[in-house]
């Protein structure tokens, strides 16, 4: 199967552009042995390369490219399939954009086209190439330093009062994970997640209640989460509660019951964030409108959780604007290496900025993910890079510290 792969990367400091000719010659010979062809562009700072050939061969060569220390910030822009090669006559040819005009390069690339109908201007690969030549997306090239620039130091604080001895926690538990602003060294909120005793799956808790009562059980569990958070010392921070999809709609007076528990614990409604997961069935439920009106009127705030994982997030935004959206970790994972994910995240940031909605990036496990998202404009994060969920406790936070030696060297 013929595969097409396009990536962009940044040349490493200290690498002489004059050495590129030998590098390209070696790569071209290697690619020819694997039946891989393509085009390489260079603008003095960034590379743009299109690879075509058998799928396994292209993937193998790209793995080697990613491991090459002569460049970094490798971002995969497109991986697709085609019936014929766009550029079949060259092993790998380089065009230095510093030496030629845009029109010359574009025409030269078109002249190298070998597909049956030549290259057409609605071809995605050609559009990527034109965009790079014309530098139309240069502002979106968010180059980040190596992960070694930052180290992460725990603050040494893990709040664990004897809440586990409460009778109410015999058959249930909660994990808490902070949402933070890493550069401001500020904990913004704690997210609570229901689990079974000793950290077992939440299924072990729900399995003990009948289907008819599952939503009532969920509501009672969330009320208990508020109590536990109070005992842990939530203070003036917010608490994010994750409900089952239909609990607030199904249980009569659920909002009133929550407000009662909030007052009982000496907290205020504005400290509670209700996180609902985007779900097409729930979004279209006529009762949802009334529930969210009550929620907003009470002072509690709304968040859409796992945004991007379902099919109804955008539709939900047209009907109700939450205070926060929590971007699904599937979109966040390796965002620094994926052009499609970067485009999606930048679009999310843009429309949320227009609607004055805060964006939280969840599931952060790599420094590079955090650095790219921070450069893109996100300041609120959650993930194991900073703190893992803790059972019936507020975990210590691993705050980032810049390594001045590495920064000066780079």
Automatic annotation (TrEMBL):
Cross-referenced PROSITE patterns: BLUF, EAL
One Pfam family from the record: BLUF
UniProt keyword terms in alphabetical order: Plasmid
Chain ranges of the BLUF domain: 2-93
Single GO molecular function: blue light photoreceptor activity
Stored CDD domains: EAL
Gene3D superfamilies: 3.30.70.100, EAL domain (3.20.20.450)
Start and end residues of each EAL domain: 155-403
InterPro entries for the chain: Acylphosphatase-like_dom_sf, BLUF_domain, Cyclic-di-GMP_PDE-like, EAL_dom, EAL_sf
Keyword 4Fe-4S: no
Segments crossing the lipid bilayer: none
PANTHER family: BLUE LIGHT- AND TEMPERATURE-REGULATED ANTIREPRESSOR BLUF (PTHR33121:SF15), CYCLIC DI-GMP PHOSPHODIESTERASE PDEF (PTHR33121)
The protein, known as: Diguanylate phosphodiesterase
């Amino acid at each position: 199967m013929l595969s097409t792969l396009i990536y962009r990367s940044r040349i490493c400091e200290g690498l002489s552009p004059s050495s590129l000719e030998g590098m390209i010659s070696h790569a071209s010979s290697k690619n020819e042995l694997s039946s891989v062809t393509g085009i390489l562009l260079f603008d003095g700072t960034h590379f743009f390369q299109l690879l075509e050939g058998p799928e396994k061969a292209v993937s193998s060569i790209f793995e080697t490219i990613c491991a090459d220390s002569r460049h970094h910030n490798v971002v995969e822009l497109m991986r697709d399939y085609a019936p014929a090669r766009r550029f079949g006559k060259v092993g790998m040819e380089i065009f230095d954009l510093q030496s030629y005009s845009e029109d010359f390069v574009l025409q030269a690339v078109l002249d190298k086209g070998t597909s049956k109908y030549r290259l057409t201007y609605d071809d995605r690969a050609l559009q990527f190439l034109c965009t790079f030549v014309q530098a139309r997306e240069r502002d979106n090239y968010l180059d980040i330093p190596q992960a070694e620039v930052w180290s992460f130091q725990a603050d040494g604080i893990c709040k664990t009062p004897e809440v586990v001895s409460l009778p109410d926690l015999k058959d249930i538990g909660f994990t808490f994970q902070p949402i933070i602003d890493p550069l401001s060294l500020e904990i913004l909120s704690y997210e609570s997640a229901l689990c079974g005793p000793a950290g077992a799956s939440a299924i072990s808790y729900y399995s003990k209640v009948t289907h008819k009562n599952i939503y009532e059980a969920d509501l009672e569990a969330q009320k208990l989460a508020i109590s536990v958070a109070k005992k842990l010392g939530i203070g003036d921070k917010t608490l994010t509660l994750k409900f089952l999809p239909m609990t607030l709609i199904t249980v009569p007076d659920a909002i009133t019951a929550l407000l009662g528990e909030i007052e009982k614990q000496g907290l205020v409604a504005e400290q509670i964030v209700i996180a609902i997961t985007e779900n097409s069935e729930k979004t279209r439920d006529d009762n949802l409108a009334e529930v969210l009106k009550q929620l907003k009127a009470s002072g509690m705030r709304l968040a859409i959780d796992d945004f991007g994982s379902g099919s109804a997030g955008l539709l939900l935004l047209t009907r109700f604007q939450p205070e926060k959206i929590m971007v699904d970790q599937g979109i966040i994972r390796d965002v620094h290496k994926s052009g499609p994910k970067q485009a999606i995240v930048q679009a999310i940031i843009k429309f949320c900025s227009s609607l004055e909605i805060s964006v939280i990036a969840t599931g952060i496990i790599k420094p590079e993910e955090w650095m790219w998202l921070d450069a893109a404009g996100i300041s609120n994060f959650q993930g194991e890079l900073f703190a893992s969920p803790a059972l019936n406790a507020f975990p210590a936070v691993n705050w980032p510290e810049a390594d001045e030696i590495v920064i000066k060297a780079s």
